[in-house]
Design a protein that fits this description.
alpha/beta, binds S-adenosylmethionine, 11 strands, three-stranded antiparallel beta sheet
Length: 253
């Protein structure tokens, strides 16, 4: 465990689907096209969040959301207490700082070194958190084995067609019955960025502007409880869902 407490750049950034590029080509043109469309959406997302890293946590300053945030800061550590947690797309580590004191260990993965630098500078329990630069669609077994998962504001950025692939990749790293906790936004008129359009598969998108004036089209889905239950499928034993005013939390295991 000597690597806990440092930022790692494991060879996790393989091809987007986790399979070698050659084997994807062999599966045929159509499959390859779908993967590259998914990749493009995620590449745009990665560029957007890398550029947003320094201004990202302003989102946690919205006055109307403070009551919910205080509840979540208490709820998430309780849900993951005593577990070896894999944190998906940890970003600037806003939630890592609340989960780490309760967890046994946290391996927190994100594609953005800019965000991970901010995360690693947070006051965290010594020797308990390891940050990794990596693609959460292509996590290798080297990352570790876990009995807890946390993904904050990640599920909304996964294309509907990629949800099963993401969860199947995650399963490979989890103990049976591992607890998975997802946190994300509800759409709230007047507080959320308006949805700009919907694609033919039902994914929704927003137009967002950063402080430098750049404009980004960002995939942002707002699933309901039934969508989440369906996505969890048979692994969703003890499925729980709670809607706060601005957020939802769902967990299983
Ligand atoms: C909405 S932010 C969430 C950050 C953090 N979880 C939070 O709740 O504050 C989404 C994060 O996903 C990361 N990301 C995008 N695509 C990724 C991928 N394929 N693998 C890992 N992280 C990714 C971005 O860099 C960004 O930090």
């Amino acid at each position: 465990m000597d690597s806990f407490g440092r930022i790692h750049s494991f060879p996790l950034l393989r091809c987007h689907s986790g399979a070698p590029i050659e084997s994807l080509r062999q599966r045929g043109h159509k499959r390859h096209e779908r993967v590259s469309e998914s990749s493009e959406t995620d590449s745009a997302l990665r560029r957007y969040y890398a550029a947003r890293a320094r201004e990202y946590e302003a989102i946690y300053g919205k006055p109307e959301r403070q009551r919910d945030l205080r509840r979540l800061e208490k709820m998430l550590p309780e849900l993951l207490s005593g577990r070896r947690v894999l944190e998906i797309a940890c970003g600037t580590g806003y939630w890592t700082q609340f989960i780490a004191p309760a967890a046994t260990t946290v391996v927190a993965v994100d594609t953005s070194p800019e965000a991970l630098e901010i995360a690693a500078a947070k006051p965290l329990p010594p020797g308990r958190v390891r940050f990794e630069v990596g693609d959460c669609y292509a996590l290798s077994r080297e990352v570790g084995r876990f009995d807890g998962v946390f993904a904050g504001f990640w599920w909304s950025h996964v294309l509907i067609r990629d949800q099963a692939r993401f969860l199947a990749g995650l399963d490979r790293l989890l103990d049976p019955g591992a607890r998975v906790v997802l946190l994300d936004n509800r759409y709230v008129e007047g507080s959320s960025t308006p949805v700009s359009h919907r694609d033919e598969e039902g994914n929704t998108y927003q137009r967002r502007r950063l402080a430098d004036g750049s404009e980004h089209v960002v995939l942002k889905n707002f699933p309901g409880e039934d969508d989440l239950r369906r996505a969890a499928g048979p692994r969703g034993l003890a499925f729980r869902y709670e809607a706060l005013d601005y957020y939802w939390v769902c967990s299983w295991g």
